[in-house]
Amino acid sequence: MAGTERRLTRQVLVIGAGPAGLMAAEAAAEAGAAVTVLDHMPSPARKLLIAGRGGLNLTHSEPLERFLDRYGPARDRIAPFIRAFPPEALIAWCEALGQPTFVGSSGRVFPHAMKASPLLRAWLARLAAQGVVLRTRHRWVGFGPDGALRFAAPEGERLERPDACVLALGGASWPRLGSDGGWTALLPDVAIAPLRPANMGFAVAWSEHLRTRFAGTPLKRIALRFGDAGTRGEAMITVQGIEGGAVYALSAPLREAIAAEGSATLHIDLRPDIDRDALARRLGTRPAAVTLSNHLRRTGGLAPVAIALVQEALHAGAPRDDLAALVKALPVTLTAPFPIARAISSAGGIAWSELDERLMLRRHPGIFACGEMLDWEAPTGGYLLQACFATGRAAGRAAAG
Questions:
Q1: Taking a C-beta distance cutoff of 8 angstroms, is the pair 99, 119 a contact?
Q2: For burial by CB atoms within 10 Å, which of 14, 172, 222, 339 has the most?
Q3: Would the CA dihedral through 356, 28, 380, 81 be positive or negative?
Q4: CA distance 222 to 334
């Protein structure tokens, strides 16, 4: 993107101050470039800060090959960047910023502080020491006639002509935090897979009783199955449907099934700690004086919300002659994914065919892309941030030349 005038120091512009953008800025600065980061929000890394409120899950400790499998169809595309900056490298990077980490019982990796703010403060201080300039309230609005990058800034329109640019504008989840997906309109000549919700909940037509009584109630120690895929964990009943970690783990195939068929049936094992035959023996014959609710509670060990789900299924026509089978595989019909604005992340983005092996846009030499702008998705568990950091680092190093 450079003009005819030769600069002594390569000028790199990064658009977007989330994890991918800041990592791109650090990598480019380390390679000797003069780096400026522009972001349209008043402060950087807002989504990272919100994500860290419940414990900043940086990455995962499982073996690398299994880790890479979490990226599904994009595995082979994203693998080289994660191999170049694997989980152990991300952990070392975090600890070099004075934020020691630990591995949780599920294998997830967290900083001991369990939040993002100390890490972000240390990171921004290091970037400033490297000479990285951060300018907020600068929104990218497209290209000028000569290829210059146009920005809406507090002082009016601003034109930038760097030697290279890294786009790190995110996907379209949590738009109030900055990533609104508006960048897709600014690249009309680039193939972009539609942005869709990922790691989200789903709409369920609950009865008025269940919705009123149990919205906000967690389903603990359950197992979910859809087709050949299954997971264990927790979920949450909401007014609109169901969400939570266990649901997010199956969200991609559920979303695709709904898109193809109009709905999808999720099966919930309300007692995964006991097999069907043993549960059937427990439930056996119900005494006439004992209500179904009390029978399921006393003999089946079900919580009130689980009992309500069983009764909901029975009222909808589920067979009554095998309670154990119903408890072990309770069907819930999902009718739509929750909107992308309330999803944890998004799927879709710039098609891999539009990028070379350095993450440069083939149609725009000197412009690189990284993070959630690319066409990949992954479950929660550290995989999202790991890929953002790894692709940001690769794009920043490539942009620095």
A1: yes
A2: 14
A3: positive
A4: 17
d(CA 76, CA 109): 24
Count of C-beta atoms within a 10 Å radius of residue 361: 19
- pLDDT tens, 344-378? 999 999 999 999 999 999 999 999 999 999 999 99
pLDDT value at position 284? 87
Predicted model pTM: 0.93
DSSP three-state, residue 330: strand
- Helical segments of 262-303, H only: 276-283, 292-298
DSSP code of residue 287 = P
In terms of DSSP H, where are the helices of 115-236? 117-129, 208-214
Structure tokens at 198: 């990922």
CB count within 10 Å of CB 335 equals: 13
The number of C-alpha atoms within 13 Å of 278 and in the hemisphere containing its C-beta is 6
Token pair 């899950």: residue: 57
Write the CB contacts of 216 (distance below 8 Å, at least 6 apart in sequence): 236, 237, 238
H-helix or E-strand containing 155?
none
**Residue 139 bridge partners (DSSP):** 152
Q: How far apart are alpha carbons 303 and 309 in whole angstroms?
A: 10
